[in-house]
Amino acid sequence: MAKEELLSDVTGTVWKIEMAVGDRVEDGDVVMILESMKMEIPVEATGAGVIAELPVAAGESVEEGDVLCVIES
Amino acid sequence: MSLEERMAELRAREERAYAMGGEEKLSRRRAAGILNARERIDHFIDPDSFIESGLLGVSGMVEADRERTPGDGKLVGFAKVDGRPVAVASNDFTVKGASSSLTNMKKIGHVKRVATERGLPLIFFGESSGARMPDNMGSRGMGTLLGNDPTQYVRRRETPWASAVLGQCYGSSAWYTCLSDFTVMRKGAVLAVASAGLASAAIGQKVEAEDLGGWKLHSEVTGLIDHVAETDEEALDLIRKFLSYLPSHHKETPPRAPVPTGSDEGAARIPEILPESRRRVYDVRKIIKAMVDKDSFFELKPRFGRTAVTGLARLNGGVVGIVANNPMSKAGAMDVPGCEKITRFLVMCDSFNIPIVMLVDTPGFVIGVEGERMKAPGKIMNFMTALQMCTVPKLSVIMRKSYGQAYLNMGGGRNSDEVIAWPTAEVSFMDPAYSVQIVTWGRDVPEQEQEQLRQQMELDNSVWGLAEMYAVQSVIPPEQTRQYLINMLDVHTMRTTGGIGKHQLSSWPTTF
């Protein structure tokens, strides 16, 4: 089983989480939406799999490079 | 000796050269699915077009190596790609790790000189271990072999250079890659100053070769690599594709191509791609692809500096360089890698007479500690200097946001030859959300009043002020942009010089 980490591209805030641990995702599915520079920035799955971890919560601040989601394929 | 005997000797020497580093080494490569130096040339060029130079060269330094160094480990010559002449240098790793020594450096020097003087693109297939031992050892070795060519590592961009990193690349293979206009790396290959083994021996750093200089590092962190390929063949095909957009030399215009049918149909889709809400992001590559000639967009450095998109494309058959902000990454706010990527791309386009089209949607430059530590203000000025020194036609399209200094960097005002805007454009010094905070700083301003201020600022930022002040020359619907750009590229053709720019950036460093 391969694990793929989705890292934050920006410093900002988690605005909305669209998926839950255990959900199945396909490449390009929006896992969550960050807010940075007053823009809504979707975080997309980079491959198909199952969400294993969601270490952030809505409203939380994130730094560039923080792990937002772990997907197992 | 009779002519017949001499001919037999020639054939014998040729056979030894074609045997390269021997069947054992060659078969190991075949088993691993890796092409050898000759197969790489054959795959890359038009069939049977190779004119080899220096087939019979061997080591000129160590007597015992004469029989063990067919071609002296670097194959060079001239060939055709899509019918156009090119110069090629292909490292033969099966011969002493394609290490550099007297004869092979003369071979490389020759094709480089010919390419530069006669106007041919120069292509390197990199896979070499560095300076040959013991040839370069000691002060006598160094004094004999190194430093004899004062132009060896000068890049004046007289002709396009492209490099494929197809194995271990240390020494000259790494240097020539860094000096090239286009670079591609096969997964598993390594580009570094020195090997992981030497790093371990010299500084005690235990590191895997791929972590030291693999495809992920160079395509995502350093940006030294434009494209990543799964196989040698794919890497070589990418170089052919790159060359199809470039002139053979700096005093020629880029090759035109027929316009594929259906190229005018994409532009109608642009309003669907651009989100209604100014807070929503989108992938600008979809807009580029909808606007340019069908299937003509060739992105460069897609994994690096992703706040910006750079790539070659065609509009009505003519080559253009596209520079675009990508709201998909950091809302399109340009960061240091994004600035470096754009600067490097502007330098290349200007050097090879490729007009530039800038597609603008940026809230500004990325602010914060990380960027400042990476010299963001200096990088922004590098970018600005490069833009202002470009003499090829520059056209800017303000699609949505253009704020602060980034307005100038993306061609605002007279930093482009023509600036056009969509009705969705908004321009100011700062996004209204932040301007409200600044102008009400330290005062207790009710929420409702702040909201009114914000709404007024949004209105003030609309495109009409720019149009009234003639800071944009036209406001046009998105779907008319393709045709407008085609018409304007025609207007701005550099007629007085036959389409050739001044190349004021031709000696700009390749990494900075």
Provide a descriptive summary of the structure in words.
The complex is a heterodimer of chains A (73) and B (512). Chain A is mostly beta strands and 73 residues long. Chain A has a four-stranded antiparallel sheet with strand order 1-8-6-3, with no helix packed on it. A four-stranded antiparallel sheet of chain A has the order 5-4-2-7, with no helix packed on it. The mean pLDDT of chain A is 92. Chain A is globular, with a radius of gyration of 11 Å. In chain A, 34% of the residues are buried. Chain A has no helices and eight strands. By secondary structure, chain B is of the alpha/beta class. Helix content of chain B is 37%, strand content 18%. In chain B, the strands form two sheets. In chain B, strands 1, 2, 3, 4, 5, 6, 7 and 8 form an eight-stranded mixed sheet that branches. In chain B, strands 9, 10, 11, 12, 13, 14, 15 and 16 form an eight-stranded mixed sheet that branches. In chain B, helix 16 links the parallel strand 13 (394-403) and strand 14. Chain B starts with a helix and ends in a 21-residue tail after the last helix. The mean pLDDT of chain B is 95. The chains are: A mainly beta (73), B alpha/beta (512).
Largest sheet geometry of chain B? 8 strands, mixed
Query: Strand tally of chain A, please?
Result: 8
Count helical runs of chain B: 20
Distance between the termini of chain A: 6 Å
- Radius of gyration of chain B equals 26 Å
N to C succession of SSEs of chain A: EEEEEEEE
- Strand element count of chain B: 16
What is the 3D form of chain B? elongated
Question: How are the strands ordered across the major sheet of chain A?
Answer: 1-8-6-3
Mean pLDDT of chain B, to the nearest integer, reads 95
Strand percentage of chain A, roughly?
A: over 45%
Largest interface: A-B, 11 and 16 residues
Low-confidence stretches of chain B: none
Roughly what fraction of the amino acids of chain B lie in strands? 15-25%
End-to-end Cα distance of chain B, whole Å, is 59 Å
Rounded to an integer, what's the Rg of chain A over CA atoms? 11 Å
Query: Considering DSSP H and I runs of 4 or more, what fraction of the residues of chain B is helical?
Result: 25-40%
